[in-house]
Fold these 3 entries.
Entry 1:
Amino acid sequence: MNSRLADVGRLDATLQVFLNKSVAKLANFYDKAFLGALTSGAGASAPTISKIGSTATGIDVIENELKIIDAMEVKNDVDTGFTPNTIFLPRADATAIKIALAKSNLLDDSNFEYVGTNAIAADHYLAMDLQNPTATVEKYADPNYSVIAALEAEPEANSDLLMQLPQSFINVKMTEPDEPQRSYVYVFAEANVNILEPNGILYGGYSA
């Protein structure tokens, strides 16, 4: 391999690493921003549930789920029209819950999808009804800098490809100055959360 090909290979690898790290940092930033907005906008009364640790059983998990479901479905003795189906909680707690359900052969009896994240405070959880419009993520993807947005601008021509791609609001801008083997890459995004129905969002904590 000549030195030019080696340089190009190193440049491509460096660029890929940069993009991977940039997208991961953006994802972590918006994970915290979105969940922060959701916890602030939560309107359902949250019950205190038991802490799930290494000694917990699947029965403990199901008991907590039933408490959370009842708390969201009924407020001031009136049906709210919302039923939680997804819970965001610290990663270690999500793992402990999944293990407890698996050991007790109760995975199929669970009412929720458990999502582990670093954006939820320790000993807290966020339950949501994701089957009904409780909140929306408003995002802008610039077709000049987003491959997906550019494809979406011509959906008929790109329908097969779009079906394989997840929605994205991440934009990438690249410029190449006169200097050889040098490029400038900018990764950016614009998004916000709009709370539609606070009763479909519940934020609470664990007991000791």
Note: The helical segments are 3-41, 58-73, 91-103, 147-152, 159-162.
Entry 2:
Amino acid sequence: MQTSDGLGINCDICKAVYKHDFEYISFSIRNIRANWQVSLDESRASRETDSLDVCTNCFAKIADEIVKNFNKNRTCRGMCEVTFAKLGHEYSYVVASNVKVNTISSAKHAEVKVDNNILEFNICNDLLASWKEKRAKANTWETM
């Protein structure tokens, strides 16, 4: 989420604050309702229902979990790619984009570069709910 002064981001998972020249991952979240896992094209065509801004440290941990679960997910479909919990009839499809922000002379202007769709994955609703809860409880921030 953007900082109150508009000059940086707060990681929605760990609450860290990044300002000036920084990089973060933007999660575009789409709610999927189905009796089985829908096709990739259908997931991509779904409307965005939420978003999260995640620091590169938290994203690295999430990506590590996806890699750890990769072989298990290939043999057992319909599982959360991060926690390996069963997806159920309603789950979320996440499209991660890398965002780089470089401050230009004045703190009020920045150059922003976005690399879209660096990773796409399915998550269970319990994981999404825990991430949203962390975002909602973020009352105090630590500066990195």
Note: The longest strand covers residues 106-124.
Entry 3:
Amino acid sequence: MTKLIVKWLVFALVIVGICYYLPGIAVENFWMAMVVAAVITLVNIFVKPLVEFLALPINLFSFGLFNLVINLGMLYLVAWLIPQFELNNFISAFIASIILAIAYLVLKKI
């Protein structure tokens, strides 16, 4: 249980860091970053596998590069679900989706 809370806090800190360093991405405060971290985790658990299954032919054809587009779409879905999390710049959102995917993979392995 403690491990889960620590992962959640670290993921929220990654989100705050992304919002601080990348222009066009904003979250109101740390508590909303924790909510965003929880929603991103839920989206990655429940929605993303279905989207990846439906996009399997495109993903195979693009040698897995379509996963970057799927990650970006999941990030925009979270921004649509949580109004306090804003994505105003496409390039920053793309970079943020790559950073969040790496952070999610690292935290998942720990």
Note: The two ends are 13 Å apart (CA to CA).
